[in-house]
Amino acid sequence: MFVDKATIKVKAGNGGNGAVAFHREKYVPAGGPSGGDGGKGGSVILRVDDHMSTLMDFRVRRKYAAGTGQDGGGRRCSGKDGEDLVIRVPRGTVIRDEATGAIMKDMSDGEPFVVAKGGRGGWGNQHFATPTRQAPRFAKSGNPGEERTIILELKLLADVGLVGFPNVGKSTLLSVMSRARPKIANYHFTTLFPNLGVVFARDEVSFVLADIPGLIEGAAEGAGLGHEFLRHVDRCRLIVHVVDVSGSEGRDPLEDFDAINAELAAYSPELASRPQIVVANKLDIVQDDALLTTFKVEMETRGLPFLALSAATHQGIGDLISLIAEKLQGLPPISVYEPEFIPVEKPPALPEDIIIRLVDGDTWIVEGEWLDQLLGRVNLDDYESRMYFERNLEQAGVYARLEELGIAEGDTVCMAQLEFEYQK
């Protein structure tokens, strides 16, 4: 099954917590704090795999998480870093942030991309020793890893895109111009997914040709198969517009030509302005020469390169290959999408962000990210660590704000898992 779009959730590893430990060794009477730092969390990395051609793997697995950093140990031993998680994607996959829709990375250049960065490890108590606090019994918790939902969109890396209504002979044309072997049958929508083929024009001159499944009127709004695969024409430098001029199905070539161009313009005005070569196919079974002549005159009037050929009998194939190679020489290389996503650096938590609420008349709930970070660094079972906690609350003005709000002596104060009576 060909899958060209998927949504997955990625989670980088959290950093390990710092350790609280003290050096104990014979003949070393004052070893001091020796708690090691936590290890760094693993990152989620996207890497191009040229052996992949679809996003099928992501239909089964939707959540990806990297390894968590280990906690620090004694004797100043740092924890082991979490293992990075490498996710392989096909070349040409565009990564978007689901929340904003902005492009984060175009995986066309082969460079790996860190889509979610691992959290930093927390400091051990060795870092908190001061001349007045020589035995700190607290350490710092590790930072959480980045977490986000991303959209993967596969956009084929092809120089030339074959477009046209169903059953006009695009797959046959691809098969005779390259070694690609798409399914070919005499009914509409035989081609259910894009096919790629490499065409060799002459020595050291080649290009990649993509057969885009048949478009119909209304494709830009979701009708038919074309809506699902219009994204694969986005990168094409040149469009080969294939039209059936045989009259075997009673269709008007000019109406078909205008209808397909209208769908390209509705999907992307920039795409509709790409250079085109108009190919009149099925020349071997033309029923009305006047139909072909009228169409040819109209194309020449519009200034479009025109070729009449028969893919079935290989008539005119060499001329088409030469014309495509000539046109490509004067066109810019395949487009690579520039990143639009601007990562928002999360500002550090501040004491001003603390929220204080009064419930049940005498119970005060104090909460906030700054408070959670502070509680993560202290050991409430240790007296010196509790004094460190008290000083931080007083210096941040938490007690002063409680008094401004009317807290009374004996009221209950709740801070996360900590609960105590307020004493002035």
Offer a concise description of the structure.
The chain is 21% helix and 22% strand. It has helices spanning 57-60, 170-177, 226-229, 253-267, 269-272, 289-301, 317-329, 369-375, 383-395, 398-404, and strands spanning 5-11, 44-48, 63-65, 85-89, 93-97, 103-107, 113-116, 147-154, 160-163, 195-202, 205-211, 238-244, 276-281, 306-308, 355-359, 363-367, 412-415, 418-421. It is α/β, with parallel strands linked by helices and 424 residues long.
Q: Topology as H/E string? A: EEHEEEEEEEHEEHEHHEHEHEEHHHEE
Strand order of the largest sheet: 10-11-9-12-13-14
Report how far the terminal alpha carbons are from each other: 71 Å
Number of strands: 18
The CATH architecture term of the largest domain is 3-Layer(aba) Sandwich
Main sheet attributes: strand count, strand direction, barrel closure: 6 strands, mixed
